């Protein structure tokens, strides 16, 4: 499980003339685990046009990285998005290596995090895109990710110096039991969905935060991409638009999986195409019982409140 180490809050520098100047999130704690080392953000030097992609995980992170890469580079082929857009708070490679690589980039930078807001150093100038997805769909994708991890994966997360807390073990053989353990253990053996979702929901009204839902991307990819481009203040080249959208489809990403998957998919049995798995929702409906579903929904509403829980499940707010 993720271990939280509390430390004094850090206040980011903000422009006092902006309406939100006194309401920017502040960092209140560090998160360490077999995956996390949140301290990297303490030394990260933001640029004014940085883009930070935030999710709990398995919620469309890689999809959003591909979308933003295609918008920035106007539909260019052959982009190695996995290298260009690192997971900053992952413990590997070491922070100095990652920070130096990001400092060397000359294009508009786009990077990812799986941290809650209060474990980040938040920049008022950067743009943040948060992607939500029904937790049950997240869990099904997470199980595929975990069950197909190979020896290199475990060596990296467990044997890289600086591990805090227990190592990550292979998952059980039953996905329903995995779901039970995850829900009962508040994200076990990874981290809390509720803390992550709740923290981003609380800052959704900030002018540099955009909330996107996986179901919205599935239902209207071109429309959501226009929305993202507008938020990022990227002028879309209409002559390239069809190619840009095509390069962000699941089929295209599956065919070019080595370019978008972390470490080109070397950490998964079957390679990168295992990482880019199905991209579908609702697989849990054939496995979970009515009692399981009621349990999940009651926990989600208790943890997130009615509106946030509904948005996470559906990608929209409840009517009335």
Structural summary, described in words:
The protein is an alpha/beta fold. It has a single domain (about 5-315), classed as P-loop containing nucleotide triphosphate hydrolases (Rossmann fold, 3-Layer(aba) Sandwich), CATH 3.40.50.300. Helix content is about 40%, strand content about 10%. It is built from 15 helices and six strands. The protein has a four-stranded parallel sheet with strand order 4-3-5-6, with helices on both faces. A two-stranded antiparallel ribbon has the order 1-2. Helix 4 packs across helix 6 (about 175-185) and helix 14 crosses helix 15 (about 305-315). It is globular, with a radius of gyration of 19 Å.
Alpha carbon gyration radius: 19 Å
What count of structural domains?
A: 1
Helix fraction? 40-55%
The largest beta-sheet arranges its strands as: 4-3-5-6
Q: What is the top-level CATH class?
A: Alpha Beta
CATH topology-level name: Rossmann fold
Sheet/helix structural class: alpha/beta
Mean pLDDT: 90
Name of the CATH superfamily: P-loop containing nucleotide triphosphate hydrolases
Low-confidence stretches: 3-20
Strand composition percent: 5-15%
Biggest pleated sheet: 4 strands, parallel
Using the 3D structure, state the CATH architecture.
3-Layer(aba) Sandwich
What's the order of the H and E elements?
EEEHHHEEHHHHEHHHHHHHH
Overall shape: it is globular
- First-last Cα distance: 38 Å
Organism: Leptolyngbya subtilissima DQ-A4
Family: Belongs to the sulfotransferase 1 family.
Domain Sulfotransferase: 48-305
Pfam families: Sulfotransfer_1
